[in-house]
Amino acid sequence: MGVAGSFPGFTGRPPGPVMDRDEADRALARLGAEHEAIETSLLALQDHAGRRLLEGADLTGVTKERWASAEQSITLLWGYFDAYAAALARAREIRAGRRYPGKDDLAALTEVLRGDSVTVANPGAVGADPATGGPARLSERFTLEELVARMNDLYARSLDMVVAADSVWSALPARIDLLAAELRRTRSLAHSVGVRPGEHPAGDDLESITQELTTLRVQVISDPLAFWLPGPGSAAPGGGRPDTSRYDRAARALEDVRREIEAVLAVRQDAEQRLVQLRDVLSRADRTLSEARSARGEVLAKIAASEVPAVSGPPTALQERLAAASEYRRHAQWNRLSPLLDSLEREAEDELLRARESLTSVTAPLAVRAELRGRLDAYKAKVARHGLAEDPLLIERYDAARRMLWSAPCDLRVAEQAVLRYQRAATDLLTPRPRGEHGGQGETS
């Protein structure tokens, strides 16, 4: 019905001098074209899918209020159009009276086409006028220009309301139905893995999403305009978009639940393998701790004056939780097994790392002794290659260091000093001296 919801074509002028024949004929031609355009627009509005849906819907809220006003406006529109058509017919009748109209005929034509000669009865005179907001009048007088302006305003507001409601109905219910179908599939899958309301948070979430979608669909059907966001600064009918924020939140919540259900399904598929791996990790941790305890006894027997940390017992708490996990698997309680396996895997790896660190800490003195033994023998082999193995000082210091390192308990601090003395004596003998320099054999004790 014209650009931006107005009737096209009318460019009426205010009352003025009497029109001549050519002016009258041009005005009648414009009026005829305008009549057809207005009728086409009103029939399109009458046949609009959104209007038909509004007519048959059980409306509530803001939509109910605005549709009641729009229905009154559409009734007024048809009344205005009938008056407009009658004025056009009257003007045509005057013009058809003579081929060359006289002054009286032209004056009558001017009055019809430019004057406020159109009287319109108001069938809904009770209450407020939907066009002006003031008290409704039994009848009104208009010029054709004023009548078209009034129809443009009523039509634009009626069409805006109809298009907005139709846009919401076209966009949201179908999407809600698709999401509801996905929700039903997810609920069925959740039930199969033991995710139920009151037993698992995801089950409670599914229940909440179900209630929200049910409520949302009822509200969208009965009050679509409550879900319409007008476009900023838009004058076109239906300028705006459906408000999908509640639908979007429900869709995101369902996606989160779906991912959680998929994680539970993954647990069902590889639970046995993960339990076997857990048992292996905890078994290795237990063996490592046993080795650490044995090593600690050896260190205490063989190494003197050394701080040896205590070794904790086996991880009985983890073993008990592992047994609970096996029970969950046996009874297909996948929703309980999933988080338990996740935490057990982390804690079992931590336990194995702790056991290895304990073994390393306990055996550190033995490692130090082994390093000192290796260093002593390496220097002995080095001096032997240089023909100094029979040097008395080296023999004496080697024997002293060896007795300390191969006796129990071994004092590592004293043994390290003995190895250093042997190392320094060997270094002195292996270091070339300037010709003519005479010196002793280094330290003698």
Number of domains: 4
- Number of helical segments with 4 or more residues: 12
Read across the widest sheet, the strand sequence of neighbours is 1-2
Q: What structural category arises from helix and sheet content?
A: mainly alpha
Beta strands, count: 6
Write the element-wise H/E pattern from the N-terminal end onward: HHHHEEHHEEHEHHHHEH
- Which range best describes the helical content: under 10%, 10-25%, 25-40%, 40-55%, 55-70% or over 70%? 55-70%
Radius of gyration: 50 Å
Q: What integer is the average pLDDT?
A: 81
% residues in beta strands: under 5%
- The dominant shape is elongated
Q: Tell me the distance between the termini.
A: 120 Å
Ranges where pLDDT stays below 50 over 5 or more residues in a row are: 1-14, 438-445
Biggest sheet overview: 2 strands, antiparallel
Topology of helices and strands:
Elements: H1 21-46, H2 49-56, H3 61-96, H4 103-114, E1 118-121, E2 139-142, H5 144-192, H6 201-222, E3 228-230, E4 240-242, H7 245-302, E5 303-304, H8 316-330, H9 334-362, H10 364-385, H11 392-405, E6 410-411, H12 412-430
Parallel strand pairs: 5-6
Antiparallel strand pairs: 1-2, 3-4
Structure, explained:
- The chain has 445 residues and is mainly α.
- The protein has four domains: 3-164; 166-266, no CATH class; 268-362; 366-430.
- It is 70% helix and 4% strand.
- It contains twelve helices and six strands.
- It has helices at 21-46, 49-56, 61-96, 103-114, 144-192, 201-222, 245-302, 316-330, 334-362, 364-385, 392-405, 412-430, and strands at residues 118-121, 139-142, 228-230, 240-242, 303-304, 410-411.
- Strands 1-2 form a two-stranded antiparallel ribbon.
- Helix 3 (61-96) packs antiparallel against helix 5 (144-192).
- The longest helix is centred in the middle third of the chain and has 58 residues, at 245-302.
- The model is unreliable at 1-14 and 438-445 (pLDDT under 50).
